[in-house]
Amino acid sequence: MAEPLISLLLERLATVLSQQVQKEVNLGKGDAEENIHNQQKIRCSFLGSPCFCLNHVVRRRAIALKIKEVSEKLDKIANERASYGLQINRATNEIQRPTTTPFFDESSVSGRDGDKKSVVSVLLAESSQETHGVDVISLVGVGGIGKTTLAQLAFNDAEVTAHFEKKIWVCVSEPFDEVRIAKAILEQLEGSTPNVDELPALLPKVSQSINGIRVFLVLDDVWTENHRHWEQLKPSLASCARGSRILVTTRKGIVATVMGTNHRINIETLSDDACRSIFNHVAFHDRSKVERERLTDIGNKIANKCKGLPLAAKVLGGLMQSKRTREEWEDVLSSELWGLNEVDKDQVEKEIFLPLLLMDDNNLGEASVQTSIQRVRHLSIVISNETSFPSSIHGAKGLRSLLIDSNGYRWLGATLPAVIKQLICIRSLNLSGSSIEEIPKEVGKLMHLRHLNLEGCRKLVSLPKTMCDLCNLQSLDVIRCWSLKELPQAIVKLINLRHLCIYDSGVAFMPKGIGRLTCLRTLDRFLVCGAGENESKAANLRELKNLDGIGGSLEIRNLQGGGIEDAAEAQLKNKKRLLCLELNFDSDSDSDISNLALENNILIEVLQPPSDLERLLICWYRGIGLPNWMMALTRLQELRLFHCSNLEVLPPLGRLPNLERLELQSVGVRRFDAGFLGIEKVGNANINEGEDARVIAFPNLKRLEILYLDEVEEWDGIERRVGEEDATTTSIFIMPQLRELKIYNCSLLRAVPDYVLAAPLQVLDITGCPNLRRRYKKEENGEDWHKISHIREVYIH
C-alpha cells in the first residue's frame, strides 16, 4: 500500500475513533450527572430495583473497556505510522495559475492593432505627474479576451523599447506576494536575486535600483482587491524618473481602482473576422490546400462560436489540429457545449470558466473542492497509486463530462461502480489509458451518456451487456484495447451511435446486424470473419451497404475471408464521405496461388471506393494488376502498397494530379519505366510548330519510398533531359516537387535516374543497396557522388 494512502486512511480512522470515544464519554458523563441528580431516588428504590443498579454498573464498565480498546487502537495506528515514516500533508486550497512571460508568437495575433496603438500612445505620452512619479495604466477585461497578449504587444513594441531605459515583466497572479514581486523586479534590473526574504530589506533595494531611471513595469494578471498589498510596494517605485509607466492587467475593475489607475482601458471582444483569423492560424497549421478548402466553411462557423474571445479561438484551433475529417469538425460544431447562446461578457467567466475544474491528486482534498464541486460541470482528475480516489466526486452530481487519468491506479476498478452511480447527468465519460479489466454493469444506468472513451485500456476484456441500453450513446472508443476480443451482440440496439472506433484493438469480428446502425459516421475498422467459431455471430461485408454515412478512415481486414458477392454488395463507392481506405487481404486461406490471384483481381475491382478518396493503402494483395478504378482517384494524395508480391506492373501513377506520397514496399515489380511515369507515348506526340506543350509526371509528389523491392534492377531514365524543348517536341517535367527519397533493401537496383536526382531533393536516404552505395557514396569514391552532393541531407548505409 502506498505511503500517502496509508497516511490518509490512518488519519481518517483516528478521527472516526476519536469521535466515537468522545461520544461514549459524553454519554457516560450524562449518565453520571443524571445519577447524582437522582441519587436519593436510587437509594430509595435500590432494594426494590436491583436490576437498575446492576445495568448501570455494567454500562459504565462497557464504556471503560471501549475507551481502553480505542486507546490501544490509536497507539497501534501511531506506531504503524511511525514505522512507515509518514507525515500528514493536507491539500492546498490554492490553484496555481499559469505563469506568463513577455515572449509570444506575434503572427498568431489578430484584430488588436487599434488597441495596441492606444496602449502605446498612453505609454509614450507626457506624464500626468507633475514631478517624479509613475503613471498606472490598467487593461481590464474578462478572462481569455487578450489582456496579456495586448501587454506583450506593447512590451515588445520598438518605440516603447527605445523610450524606456528599463523594461520589467512580472507575472503577479494569486496570491499577491510582495516579496516575490520585489525579487522579480530586482532580478531583471540587476541580473541576480538577492538572498533576502524580508520585505523591509527588499524595498529600499528596489527604490535604489530604479532611482532616476525611466522604467516600464508590467504587472500581469493582478487579482488582489486588498489595497494594503499595493500600498506596501508602491512607494518603492516612486523614485523612478518622470515618464515611467506601470501597466496592469486584471479581470476586475475594482483592482484597477485599488492600484490607483491613471488610465483605464477596457478591452473589448474581437470581431468575428479576427476570431476566424486566429482560429485558422492554429487549426490549419501545416495542412494541405485541399484540407483547407474542405474544412474552411465549418471552421468559420466554429470560430463564430468563440464570442469574440481570442483565447477560446486559440484553444479551439488547437483542438481541431488533430481532427482530420469533416465529420469530426461537424461534431465539434454541433456539440452541446455551445448551448450558451446569449452570454454577455460579464457572465463569461461564471458560465464558461467556473464550470471547468482541473484541481489533480495533489489538490483534490476535501476542503479545496467542497464549496464548488456541486457547481462543476466538466471535471478532470489525475490520480496515481500514491493517492486515494477523491471522495469529493460523489458530490458532483451535476457533472456533464468526467475525465479520469488514473495513471495505472490499481483500485480504479473497485471504485468505479460507486462513482458511476452518482453520475446521473453525465454526458461524456473518459477512462482512456486506465488499467480496468471490465466496465461496471452500472454504466447501463447513465441514460444521458453520449460519449464513452476507453482508448488504451489494454487490460479491458469485456463490455457489459447493460451498456447496450444506452439509447443516447453517440460514440464508443476502444482503440488499443488489446484484450477486448469482441463487442456485445446487442450493440446493434444503439441506434444513435455515430462513432465506433475499434482500430488496433483485439476485436476479431463485427457483430451481426451492425448494418442497422445507419447513424454511424465513423467506423474505422471492419473485420471480415470468414469461417470459424465466430461465423454464426459475425457480420459479413454486405452489411456495409446501408452505412453510406461513414466517413474519415476505414480499414477492411481479412478481405480474403469474404466473398466477392458480399464485397460487391458493400458498395464502397457510395461512401462519399470516406477519405482514407485500407484494403487488407491478409487471411489464413489455403487456396492455391493461381486461384488466389484471380480471386483478388476480381475482389479488388468490386471494392471501388468513392472518387474523392485522399489516401489508399493496399496490403497483402495477391493480384497481378491494380484495379481499373485506381486512375480515377484524381484527389488521391497518398498511395501505399505493402506486400503485393504478385504485382509486377504498375499503372501510370505519374498521372495522378494530387499524389503527394507514394510508398512501395515488398511489391513484385521488376522495373520502373516510362509507363510508370505515364509519359510512354509523349515522344510520338504530334506537336504543331511553335506550340508549347507540357507534360508533368507526378506534379505534386513530395515523398517517394521504395522498400524491399528485391527484383528491381532497372529504373529507366528518359532520352532527353528534363525541361528540354524545341519547336517540335513536348516539354517533360518529372517530380518537380520531390523533397524526400528513401530506398531500402533494393539489392539489385543499379542506379537512380538523373531526372529524380535533378528534383529539389532535401533528403536522400539509401540503406541496404550495395550497388547504389558504390555509385553514390563519397567515401567510396562513387562515380556519381557529384550528382547528389547538392542535397542537404544524404544518408547512405
Automatic annotation (TrEMBL):
GO biological process: defense response
InterPro entries: Apaf_helical, LRR_dom_sf, LRR_R13L1-DRL21, NB-ARC, P-loop_NTPase
Stored PANTHER family: NB-ARC DOMAIN-CONTAINING PROTEIN (PTHR36766:SF45), PLANT BROAD-SPECTRUM MILDEW RESISTANCE PROTEIN RPW8 (PTHR36766)
Lineage summary: Eukaryota, Viridiplantae, Streptophyta, Embryophyta, Tracheophyta
Residues spanning the signal sequence: 1-18
UniProt keyword Ligase, yes or no: no
Gene3D superfamilies per record: Helical domain of apoptotic protease-activating factors, P-loop containing nucleotide triphosphate hydrolases, Ribonuclease Inhibitor
Name of the featured protein: Uncharacterized protein
GO molecular function: ADP binding
Residue ranges occupied by any R13L1/DRL21-like LRR repeat region domain in the UniProt entry: 541-666
Domain NB-ARC: 130-288
Keyword Signal set for record: yes
UniProtKB keywords: Leucine-rich repeat, Plant defense, Signal
Pfam families in UniProt: LRR_R13L1-DRL21, NB-ARC
